[in-house]
Amino acid sequence: MSRVLITAGASGIGWAIAQAYAREGAHVHLCDTQPAPSHPNITATLCDVTNEPALNQWLDTAIATLGGVDILINNGGVSQRASANDTSMEVNRQLMEVNFFGNIALAKAVLPIFRAQKSGQYLVISSIAGKFGFHLRSIYSASKAALVGYYESLSMEEAAHGICVTIAFPGKINTPISTS
User: Fold this and answer.
1) pLDDT in the model for residue 177
2) How many CB atoms within 10 Å of residue 97?
3) What are the tens digits of pLDDT across the range 136-161?
4) Nearest-CA neighbor of 39 among 10, 68, 7?
5) Which one from 21, 122, 140, 151 is the annotated catalytic residue?
6) Distance separating alpha carbons of residues 129 and 145, to the nearest angstrom
7) Fewest Cβ atoms closer than 10 Å to its Cβ: which of 108, 114, 148, 169?
């Protein structure tokens, strides 16, 4: 039975993935900045991926609750809709903190666990915008492209340790991120 951790799992893609794993009998623990709907096979904690101490506390709690972790689904992210010229450096940094640094902070925290058990699966939700720039999505595209470079490298580095990486590139989906 898989033990699955999901960031930004209270709605949208994350919630759909959480429910699918729960239906298959997996033990699912998610974190989000918003409360998750109630589900008998899913536990949830309020957590912001940019707050590294809170993120590590969530990870410790989730692992204690589930007895370990087999799959980490890094789904958290925010979007932006403005030209590169009109996007402030503050917004650029905020998007990179959420979409990239918060993501890899958790990946790095889980990596020693995956290495110790000689197995593990990362599923990273990038975006089609991580492959191609999009009008009015400059920093969003950049943050999602950064994930691709990081996880492609991680995949090559950790394959010998039984660790797998999958990067998903969803196109336009009607989720709460679309309202950002």
Assistant:
1) 55
2) 18
3) 999 999 999 999 999 999 999 999 99
4) 10
5) 140
6) 7
7) 108
pLDDT digits (tens, 9 = 90+) for 57-83: 999 999 999 999 999 999 999 999 999
| Rounded Cα gap, residues 15 and 173, in angstroms | 13
Q: Are 45 and 6 in contact (CB under 8 A)?
A: no
Dihedral angle, C-alpha 54, 60, 65, 70, nearest 10 °:
110
pLDDT digits (tens, 9 = 90+) for 87-121: 999 999 999 999 999 999 999 999 999 999 999 99
What are the tokens at 70?
């087999």
Amino acid 40: pLDDT: 93
Q: Which residue has the tokens 């709690």?
A: 61
* Residue 140 is a catalytic residue: yes
Residue with tokens 């699912």: 28
Q: What does the block give as tokens for 119?
A: 């197995």
Mean pLDDT of the chain: 95
> Which residue type sits at 102?
G
pLDDT value, residue 176: 57
Q: Given phi > 0 = left and psi -120 to 50 = alpha, else beta, which region is 68?
A: left
Nearest to 32 by CA among 76, 80, 79: 76
